[in-house]
Amino acid sequence: MAEIWKEIQAAISDATGRPFSLSSKKPAGGGCIAESWILEGSGQRYFVKTGPLPFDMEKEGLEAIEKTGSIRVPEVVCIGESANGFFLVLEHVEMRRSARDFASLGRQIAAMHRNTGPSFGWRCDNLIGSTRQMNGWEKDWAGFWERNRLGSVENADARCGQLHFATVHLGILGARGTGAQNAFHLQHE
Prior knowledge:
By secondary structure, this protein is an alpha+beta fold. It has helices at about 5-15, 55-65, 100-115, 140-160, 165-175, 180-189; strands spanning about 25-30, 35-40, 45-50, 75-80, 85-90, 125-130, 130-135. Helix content is about 45%, strand content about 20%.
């Protein structure tokens, strides 16, 4: 067994206070950076991500979403590092799909985005795949979206010689004013 799986077993056991012995691991898809797995053993099941980059910010993001009380997120069991890379262990949530579930999810995402503070941003930048996601603080939502989301996409597209749909989307919404500030909520409802 590769070193990372031994480390994950030990981390799960330490975090839960229950022994965990891996009996099966199945790929669960993945993105451009991390791989995802369903681990089973000792009567327990977990969703695990492994990859070359730390998962600290993903853990923090999931915990922040959970604190809004608007949408159910899987519990973070533990994160860690081994000689073979980094890992994030989450509670396994059985996924199901129905039109009613998607409608409910849309309402929950809209409710999550209504949880705001005195400014818009995050304490540090993070990654979306391998792309740096800027999170600088702005006094209003439209300013945050313009500079930290669309501005970074536009700059990346300019380097590639492409016009991105998000740049056009900003023009449709209007960079400033209540239309742009409320548009994100409306898209999820």
